[in-house]
Amino acid sequence: MTCAKLSGKMNFRPLRFQSLIMAITLAAGPSGTGADAPSWNQFRGPNGSGVAQGCRPPLKPEAGHQAWKVAIPPGLSSPVLSDGKIFLTAIDNNRLVTLAFESSSGKSLWRREAPEVPLEKVHKTSSPATSTPLVDAGHVYVYFGSFGLICYDHDGLEKWARSISTPKSLYGMSTSPIAYKNTVILVIDNDSNLLKSKLSQSKIVAFKKDTGEVAWEAQRPHHRSGWSTPMIWKHGEDEELIVLGNGRVRSYNPDTGAEKWFVGGFSRETIAVPVAGNGHVYISSAQLGGGADDKIDPQPFWQAIMRFDANNDGKLERKEMTGHFTYPLRPELPLGHPGFGIPLPENKQQRKGRLDGIFGWVDKNRDGFWTDEEYTAHMSFRRGRPLLMAIRPGGEGNVEDSHASWELNRSIPEIPSPLFYQGHIYLVRNGGLLAVVDAKDGTQLYRERLDGSGQYSASPIVANDHLYLISNFGLLSVVKTGGKFELIHRYDLKEPVLVTPAIDSSTIYIRSEKTLLALRSKS
Predict the structure, then answer these.
(1) String of b and e for 153-186 (b: at least 16 CB within 10 Å)?
(2) Among 452, 415, 408, 407, which residue's Cα sits nearest to residue 434?
(3) Which of 42, 395, 432, 463 is least buried, going by the fewest C-beta atoms within 10 A?
């Protein structure tokens, strides 16, 4: 089988005729996918919704529910499921790999290495293996920002591979591929978005599933790097491809890539997956730097700064900016965490210059001190607004005034995506705050603190009318859905969890920092 090269540096690598090591599967045990359960085949499950209809994992998971646990290489892709198999990606000894396991037992089925390429530069808290695979009845599609898109069959035989020039991104690529009819759709937004170079343009590309050839391509000249995965919005007889990018959400025709409408007002840094329900699509992004509310409480930030007040005079001097000091952005994180504050250079001279500049931001009266009052006044420098917006279908061009039904500017997560379920929208954010919003009008019904504090990176998922929420520290909280807060159960996994779990008919599959484990109902 051969294919011609297409334009640019997006090169097709044909099927390699090689011996196939067949995986031996166990005959006993559950298949891992109930007949009444939708396939958890992409990031956040069916259409990115986070909703597992007809599935009944443990309501009160504990150690006795652990069906198996296996060690895996590091990575930040979420597990996906199909036909009794689990697929995910990782980085192992500087090689990008795709892994397959048996869902009933955790047995390793196969491991495939992507072509050896220079690894993209990523943030310290990210990974070159962050994009979640897409799986259908016969194939697994994996995207690595360092290489491109690869298609395997379920037994690990490579069917095709397409190299894609690595986009320039602030933190590394994390958007995941989705399926539409006979295509795989991938958003490739790029900070080097120069009109004079086709290779550096932000774009959406639809690849043919069977060959990897380009079905269509849509340029995004106004967009820079982003980290959101798109979704297909089905309403009536119509279908739209909804893509959240820096500053704007846009709708496209998923058959052709033609743009339909857009709405602005979103952050420079967009991460969440759009969700749909109640005749609307819901889009969210936190304020730049992770701010969840339009009115920011400066005290947690000031208290983080006061940890460096060596002489305990309630002020900060330039000479007290030592050790892990940086300007705080996410004070709920521990000192020294890469996401705590503004990154500083490793070079001592450059670091000194940057800290001198930061000190000058706040010390407006030049008396050599930061005070609580000065810092509180300076907090207004944050750009953008936290935003959850409900958009109804129809319209062309800018539809913000004509088709935005409501917006909310409180409790907006930075990394976790919203979840729509039975007329409510669920939002979990750093600090362990869970908010529930009435999808009809954007009214916040409650905001309650979970016992799991710190940062939340995993998105909420729902099964059997219960939310499953996992903190970065690994505390799993189960909360009953509805407009009243009801915490059902807590289970400490005792290991960090940074990615969204997967669910099938009886089991929740959780990828921790070093392991993949299955918590299964005992029935």
Answers:
(1) ebebbbbbbbbbbbbbbbbbbbbbbbbbeebbbb
(2) 452
(3) 395
Task: Please give the CATH number for the structural domain made up of 1-18+30-173+499-523.
Answer: 2.40.10.480
Alpha helices in 342-496 (DSSP H): 348-362, 372-378, 400-403
User: Is 239:181 a contact under the CB 8 Å cutoff?
Assistant: no
CA 149 to chain CA centroid, Å, is 18
d(CA 127, CA 509): 20
Asked if residues 86 and 80 have their Cβ atoms less than 8 Å apart, the reply is yes
Tell me the CB-side half-sphere exposure of residue 59, using CA atoms within 13 A. 11
In the DSSP assignment, the letter for residue 39 is P
Token pair of 149, please? 């898109």
Query: Where exactly are the structural domains of the chain?
Result: 1-18+30-173+499-523, 299-381, 415-498
Could you give the CA distance from residue 92 to residue 100 in angstroms, rounded to a whole number? 14
Q: What's the pLDDT tens digit per position in 264-312?
A: 989 888 889 999 999 999 999 988 766 766 677 788 888 989 999 999 9
pLDDT in tens, 466-509: 999 999 999 999 999 999 999 999 999 999 999 999 999 999 99
Q: Is 438 helix (H, G, I), strand (E, B) or coil?
A: strand
Nearest of 135, 170, 169, 163 to residue 149 by alpha carbon: 163
- Distance (Å, whole) CA 78 – CA 48: 12
DSSP letters spanning 274-305: PEEETTEEEEEEPPTTS--SSS---HHHHHHH
- 200 band by pLDDT with thresholds 50, 70 and 90: low
Instruction: Provide CB contacts within 8 A for 380, sequence distance 6+.
Output: none
Which amino acid, residue 280? H
Question: What's the CATH code, domain 299-381?
Answer: 1.10.238.10
3-state secondary structure of 477: strand
Q: How far is CA 126 from CA 131, 171, 196, 244, 362, in A?
A: 11, 7, 30, 20, 30
Tell me how far apart the 2 most distant CA atoms of the chain are, in Å: 75
231-235 and 238-244 strand pairing: antiparallel
CATH of 415-498 given 2.40.50.100, 3.40.630.30, 2.40.10.480, 3.40.309.10? 2.40.10.480
**What order do you get walking across the sheet with 66-71 strand by strand?**
66-71, 515-520, 507-511, 502-503
Measured CA to CA, the distance from residue 229 to residue 270 in angstroms comes to 10
CA–CA gap between residue 21 and residue 14 (Å, rounded):
19
